[in-house]
Amino acid sequence: MIIHGAYSKRRREDTQFLHPDVVAEFKTWVTKKKPEPDDILFPVSAKTCGVERKTSKMLELDLLSAREVWINESNSIEDANRGSRAIF
Fold this sequence. Notes:
Low-confidence stretches: none
Strand order of the largest sheet: 1-2
Shape: elongated
Radius of gyration: 19 Å
Number of helices: 3
């Protein structure tokens, strides 16, 4: 994917390589969403679209959920202490 300078944090053209599975999922999502050329695809702040998303909170909850699955998947004595370690 090419990010044009006008949209890049560093104001230069950048290339972002994506896994083919991510590209396929993204194409499916965009096809369903049918955005206009100037639509913001991922609105995350009140500045850009009037919606304030708590992205850090979403990420924290996702990490905690993934950690719980990881702990529950333990199947050895060494893994049994997975849940006792601090995560942050």
